[in-house]
Design a protein that fits this description.
Number of domains: 1
Order of helices and strands: HEEEEEEEE
Number of helices: 1
Shape: elongated
CATH class: Mainly Beta
Distance between the termini: 70 Å
Largest sheet: 8 strands, antiparallel, barrel
Strand content: over 45%
CATH topology: Porin
CATH architecture: Beta Barrel
Strand order of the largest sheet: 1-2-3-4-5-6-7-8
Number of strands: 8
Helix content: under 10%
Length: about 210
């Protein structure tokens, strides 16, 4: 093929090559980008277990429990609970809680159980980011309150209103759905007029 003929053939092929390049598929996203969020938010369930201490245990019905005295003094025992709630953004969450505990006072007073349920509100005040710019570690405050029953009836009380609140820390693990926490609350049994405290680790799973 002579040079003029080669130039003519090349001129005819150039538009076809340009169309072929334009037709190449374009990448819609960076294939290196993460496909999932490192920290999940939304509906969650949580479990807590720790220690409940009461500084005073007044006797509600002295006629029914004459040996208990007016007070059994301080008491303490195991506390367990479960929550189901939802995140309202990255800093605020609301949940319903169920909680049960058993506390033992003096020998004459004996032991009693307390079961409560109500509403819990948590607000994260400070968040610390990891090297990938995800906030994982939070310092929070929370408050909860609800209706409670105590057994045996008439010892520490029967119907009770319990309120609690305090600070805590929570860490969102690299398992995405799981977080671990530790809370410390001031607890108040309003009808009995008794004040106490609770310390409990927590495990949370977010769907």
């Amino acid at each position: 093929m002579k040079p003029p003929e080669r130039l003519a053939a090349l001129a005819l092929l150039l538009p076809a090559l340009a169309l072929g390049q334009d037709a190449a598929p374009q990448l819609q996203e960076d294939p290196r980008a993460a496909k999932f969020r490192d920290v999940e938010r939304g509906f969650f369930v949580a479990f807590e277990a720790g220690y409940l201490g009461l500084l005073d245990t007044p006797t509600a019905d002295l006629e029914k429990f004459p040996l208990a005295g007016e007070s059994g003094g301080s008491a303490g025992g195991l506390l367990v609970g479960a929550l189901a709630g939802v995140d309202l953004g990255t800093r605020l969450s609301v949940a319903l809680f169920l909680q049960g505990g058993n506390a033992r006072a003096s020998a004459n007073y004996g032991a009693f159980s307390l079961f409560a349920g109500g509403l819990d509100v948590k607000l994260s005040l400070l968040g610390r980011r990891d090297r990938n710019d995800w906030e994982r570690l939070y310092v929070y405050v929370h408050a909860r309150g609800g209706y409670a029953r105590t057994y045996p009836e008439g010892l520490f009380g029967t119907d009770e209103v319990v309120v609690a609140g305090g600070p805590g820390v929570e860490y969102y693990t690299r398992l995405r759905h799981f977080s671990l926490g530790l809370g410390a609350d001031v607890v108040r049994a309003t009808k009995a007029g008794a004040t106490g405290f609770a310390v409990y680790p927590t495990v949370r799973y977010t769907f």
